[in-house]
Amino acid sequence: MGTGGSLLALRHEQFESLFLAAYRDVLAFAVRRLRERAAADDIVSETFLVAWRRFAEVPSDHEEARLWLYRVAHYCVLNAARAQRRRVALGEQLRHNASGRNAGVRVVVPDDRAESLARAFCTLSEADQNILLLAGWENLSPTQIATVLACSAGTASTRLSRARTHFDRAVARDNASGGEDR
Q: Which one of 57, 108, 118, 147 has the largest count of C-beta atoms within 10 Å of its C-beta?
């Protein structure tokens, strides 16, 4: 085997190591955003396909590589969400049904407080939901969030603070209405 073959074998080995180390985290990241395993599997596949194609750009440090993969997955989720919105809009247009307020969103929760939180969360923008998920579910610091979102740590910290404020207000609105907006 020539030099080219050994370099490809080394790349394959390094990619396999990255995949084995980060697969579960990237899958969990996608599942929490999409809430459907099949859609999450698609995002994970797209994420690792990008990683393979752009392997020279993947950081060698495992933690930095995980954040890099989260960023790629984040963009894949955004692309999937845009495509889903286009499909939904087309379906609504075809049915001539323009009601659309959180249509079809159902969250199974164990108690009234959790249900209130879930309803409030669903009223937030995608950007607010995403940054709260990065902080709460992925347990990332503002600096790590900044890496995933490709912005400064200060910007990430400000966005997180605003998202938390928006969420608190949404919870207060839901509690004040008694959850009647279902």
A: 147
